[in-house]
Each structure stands twice: as structure tokens, then as C-alpha cells.
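Note to self: keep these together.
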Amino acid sequence: MEYTEAELIEYTNQAIEKISQGGSIEELAQFTYEKFQLPLIVADSGYRLIAYAGDEDIHDPYWQQIISSGEPTDHTIMK
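Structure:
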């Protein structure tokens, strides 16, 4: 799906508003998912889950592990 410049500007303005009102990363991820219907995973540099939004099946076993437990296993990191 393609978005117009006006739609992207509207999304950006709404996201900035949510952030300025103290919205969490989880809330911003969910808002973004609802707007674009794209699953979103936010993780830190150690692949520990910060936020996940979406209801699609994740087929990658590494991301499944991170989403289900919140962090990778040693085995996941070594791969």
C-alpha cells in the first residue's frame, strides 16, 4: 500500500503528539501498527524485547523466542 505525503505528515504529527503527551514505546508501536497494518518489533541492542505490536504469525524462530520470552536465549545469540 502506498501512502500520500499528507497521510505520512498526519501520522508523524499524531505520533509526535502521542510522544509529547508521555506515550510509551508500546503505545507508539501499537499506534503505528494500527495505522499501517505492519507488525513492529522494537528491541534493544541485546535483542531484549521493548515492544511488539501486531497479530500476524511470526515465522522466524529467533524472533518467536524473543517475542514469547522477552529476550533471546544463549543459543539464539550464538546462531
